[in-house]
Amino acid sequence: MWNPEKTAIILNPAAQGGRVGRRWASVYAAHQAILGGTTVLPTTPEARGAVQTRRALETGRFDTLLAVGGDGTFHEVVNGLWDGQEGVADIRLGLLPMGTGGDFRRLLCGGAGADLAQRIARLPQAAEHRMDLGWCTYVDDEGQPGREAFLNVASFGAGGLVDREVNKSRKRLPGWLAFGTAMWKVVRAYRPPVVRLSDETEEVFFEGSILNVALGNGQYYAAGFHVAPRALLDDGLLEVVVLQPGTLPELIVGAARKRRGAHLDHALVRYRRVRTLRAEIVGEGSAYLDLDGEAPGMVPASFGVLSRALSVLDLDPRHLSCSQVPA
Known about the structure:
Strand 5 (128-140) and strand 6 (145-150) form a beta hairpin. The protein is of the alpha+beta class and 327 residues long. The protein has helices spanning 19-30, 32-35, 49-59, 71-81, 103-109, 116-122, 158-168, 175-189, 248-259, and strands spanning 7-11, 39-42, 64-69, 92-97, 128-140, 145-150, 153-157, 194-199, 204-209, 212-216, 238-243, 269-274, 277-281, 289-291, 297-313.
């Protein structure tokens, strides 16, 4: 049952280059009948989404959290809900996308989806879905061990470098242009590392040079690339897509097919579904991570999934249950 007084809004005013912060007062005023009485917790550089989420949980006052921002904001909030092991806070999570890339929005709605006003209007009658949460252990930039959850897609290789370029740009450009510009800069200078990949059986199923490796809990990344078209949000599995280096024409064709999700049979692609994955560097080189568009560290890394760990509100009237999202 929707109760605004038991709802905390984790708001990222810096999303979309600060446009979310400038718009929020008018959005809140326009939907006062629904949002009035909620507690708004804006994020800051000192108190990011994970910190504000934990503060909300510690009060014991709330049964619902709304995350307002982009994929990075959602990433921070789920990390505030996760205990770093097997536990996830028992609270309903609503996602109100107002970010640059909008990749998780694409999966939930099978396209551009309902606009913000429609999602807010749906809050009082929103159904709940249980969905999986991915996790990753890695080495951070200072060489220390790190651990984070991811909601949508994790990757390593060129994708981690693209994230760093996009985040340096402060996201003033539209999502597709910001990611496209960063991707072109990275691919021109990229030196592919050799990696070894093994699954939960400890079988090494790939060893070789990579352009990028993606692990999909969701299906889209990099502002609309349909990288993991068979991934489902509630099946307890990650879809692994390995993209190997090639000639420029091969990469252009592969990128075009990847944008529309038709790349799994491409000669440069290897595909597997796993419960866990271990990635290691063979020899020299580095492979930087991308977790929901954030760049926390590098390989060696391990990945896994917590099956149906999150309770997520359905805020789009066209949304199908997770296992029915069309691939």
